[in-house]
Design brief:
Strand order of the largest sheet: 3-2-1-4-5-6-7
CATH class of the largest domain: Alpha Beta
Structural class: alpha/beta
CATH architecture of the largest domain: 3-Layer(aba) Sandwich
CATH topology of the largest domain: Rossmann fold
Oligomer: single chain
Number of helices: 12
Number of strands: 13
Length: about 350
């Protein structure tokens, strides 16, 4: 098949550091090519991937940039794709609204239902479908349009499995340093349990005050902030942790870092929000918690989790190979229906 994939215009594929969706696009594109398909990618001008690339123009504030983006995407007509798959905006599929070409919109964040309803009225009948990065996301779309849950994944072979860690190994928090991610709760867990905690992640400018007032004063020999980390540092950090903490205070659509931790064999302790209950198998690959007390109890019981089973579960459900197969099945089904 000839498959066109559209990314957001802001982060290159693959990303240098932050960019979970761009990592998924990267392994998906390479996997499709390895399976013999032709792929054209529409993405940030600094993307570096071995397929034909339509480069988005330099992004600036204003309506003109959106118009330029749409003109760039319209050039896909020359490629004559069998399927067009957007990981960016739903609006990016508008140049093909009346085309018979199957179109797939993948939501990695909360969907805007009004846009989905309007798209169903505008687009050619039976040519537009959706995926969500979790059942949590996909179920929001299902009352209004055809939607399938396809979890995010990781290239498990890039993560070193660590079969055992010392009982004094640290807890790890890895994510943006902002209140909804629960960095302050991770610190509270470490303080109560007496465990060491390593905090990693970027500080968004809007939350510098949060870091300065609620995080920085708590740093010590026990609680350490190491800043943003690259893939190599992430691998070491997650693999050598006794557990990964996911104390979120919002409904996270997926949370790729949980799959990354599991690829290292590291169990996840997370709050029952968003997709956490789909990703973590309670008392098997980690613990699903409702309160801070639950998290404390989970930390104290973490030795009951078999790290080998954590890794195996990640390979079965979240490996890049599995995710590529699932997207490919949707492409093939949509393309077959096109000729019925």
């Amino acid at each position: 098949m000839k498959i066109a994939i559209i990314a957001d215009p802001f982060i290159p594929v693959p990303p240098e550091n932050y960019g979970g969706i761009e990592r998924i696009i990267d392994f998906l594109v390479r996997g499709l090519v390895a399976n013999g398909h032709q792929v054209l990618l529409v993405a940030n001008e600094n993307s570096n991937i071995d397929v034909p690339l339509l480069k988005f123009p330099k992004q600036q504030i204003g309506v003109l940039t959106h118009i330029k983006n749409m003109r760039t995407i319209a050039k896909l007509h020359c490629f004559q794709p069998d399927v067009i798959h957007s990981f960016g905006r739903l609006a990016y599929l508008l140049p093909f609204a009346y085309s018979k070409t199957p179109k797939l919109m993948s939501y990695q964040r909360e969907p805007t239902i009004k846009q989905i309803i309007n798209a169903q009225k505008i687009f050619r009948k039976n040519t537009l479908s959706f995926t969500g990065c979790s059942e949590y996301i996909s179920k929001q779309i299902m009352p209004y349009a055809k939607s399938t849950a396809i979890h995010n994944g990781v290239e498990t072979f890039k993560y070193d499995f660590v079969s055992a860690v010392d009982q004094n190994a640290p807890l790890v928090f890895l994510g943006r340093i902002e209140p909804i991610k629960g960095t302050h709760i991770a610190i509270a867990i470490a303080e109560i349990t007496g465990k060491k905690l390593v905090i990693a992640g970027n500080i968004p400018p809007a939350y510098q005050t949060y870091f300065d007032e609620e995080i920085k004063p708590k740093l010590s020999d026990q609680i350490n902030y190491v800043g943003a980390v690259n893939d190599k540092q992430k691998n070491l950090l997650l693999g050598n942790a006794i557990a990964f903490l996911m104390p979120i205070e919002w409904d996270e659509p997926f949370g790729i870092v949980m799959a990354e931790a599991m690829a290292c064999g590291t169990p996840v302790i997370g709050f029952r929000r968003g997709a956490v209950p789909e990703i973590v198998k309670n008392e098997q690959t980690g613990f699903i918690c409702d309160t801070i007390d639950d998290m404390v109890s989970a930390v104290n019981a973490i030795h009951n989790i078999n790290r080998k089973l954590v890794r195996e579960d990640c390979e079965k459900r979240f490996s890049s190979a599995i995710i590529i197969e699932k997207y490919l099945a949707i492409y093939q089904s949509a393309n077959e229906n096109r000729y019925r």
